[in-house]
Write a structure and sequence with these properties.
Number of helices: 9
Helix content: 40-55%
Radius of gyration: 17 Å
Order of helices and strands: HHHHHEEHHHH
Shape: globular
Strand order of the largest sheet: 1-2
Distance between the termini: 26 Å
Length: 195
């Protein structure tokens, strides 16, 4: 099964609230979501990387929330729909932002070679998590906890005041769980330098 097929299957299985069909239609037919990279030079910097990253985050989040400690000690329980929404939609802010280009690098003989790359140019500079909430909420009504999870999914690696991030994590544990899943996917599953 391709990443696109898996994404659509998970989306259709778990995301059923009003507007879900319009959101999926937007992703499939009116955006570059399924062909866009997840970044310009880091994790998922290739065609389809954004969809693959979203799936990786989904699987990491499902695994995190199934931990005995998370369920029994922390009492975190979320619907399958909420889990699918926050994981699959957390990076919708990246739609339409990456353009194909080239950059020059030296090959093993010291000669300059043009290699394919992506450049980042955001046509709607609304923020990172904020923009993902804005796009998603334009189609489906997010709960407050879902909106906060998507908004704060960058966690302490973002540019926000760390006190604010900590407050968001304390009030909305799904935000912490999503940020953890996002980091696990980015730094472990998608890190090409990792052996």
């Amino acid at each position: 099964m391709s990443c696109k097929e898996e994404f659509i299957e998970i989306f259709k299985t778990y995301i059923t609230r009003d507007g879900a069909d319009k959101l999926l239609d937007y992703l499939e037919h009116k955006s570059d979501f399924f062909t866009a990279p997840a970044s310009a030079r880091y994790h998922g910097a290739y065609e389809g990387g954004l969809c693959e990253h979203s799936l990786n985050v989904y699987h990491c989040l499902v695994d995190y929330l199934q931990r005995e400690r998370v369920q029994e000690l922390y009492g975190l329980e979320y619907s399958e729909e909420s889990v699918a929404i926050v994981a699959l939609c957390h990076d919708l802010c990246k739609i339409g932002c990456y353009k194909r280009g080239t950059r020059n690098v030296k090959d093993e003989n010291g000669k300059w070679q043009a290699v394919p790359t992506y450049t980042f140019d955001d046509p709607l500079p609304y923020g990172h998590g904020e923009k993902s909430v804005y796009i998603t909420n334009g189609f489906i009504r997010l709960t407050r906890e879902e909106a906060m999870a998507i908004r704060w999914h960058m966690g302490f690696s973002g540019t926000e005041d760390s006190r604010t991030v900590g407050q968001a994590f304390q009030k909305y544990p799904l935000a912490f769980a999503l940020a953890t899943a996002d980091m696990e996917a980015s730094y472990f599953l998608e890190n090409e330098d990792r052996i």
